[in-house]
Design goal:
Elements (H helix, E strand, L loop, with lengths): L2 H16 L3 H5 L2 E8 L7 E2 H15 E14 L2 E12 L4 E12 L5 E7 L2 H8 L1
Amino acid sequence: MTQEAIEQVVTAYFANITSMNPEGWIDNFAEDAISHDPVGEPPAKVHEGYRQFIGQLQAVFEKLEATIEHIFIAANEAAVKWTMAGISKSGKPVKFAGITIFEVNAEGKIQTTRAYWNPAQMIAQLR
């Protein structure tokens, strides 16, 4: 797996979150992919719950923009420092940040994600 291929799938992951595109987002993942988002919550089988994840974004946000601040790549993994900024359906601005670790398989699909961020900080801004 090349660094360019890993960077490409990670970039597509965040672009599809920004566009709230469930089909594009799920296409980045291996069929048996697991997501720990956030770490500490029970892991989710991506292909079983992807519509729910994007649906939650669509229900809460009028606009959401992901910014990749830096990608660190080693072997078949990437650690990504990111920031999300958005506007809720009620017009409230929201900004939160985190780090996600991506494991990419030999086919160039995301096998596992481990997202380190605090959803409570985002939720507090929405109230």
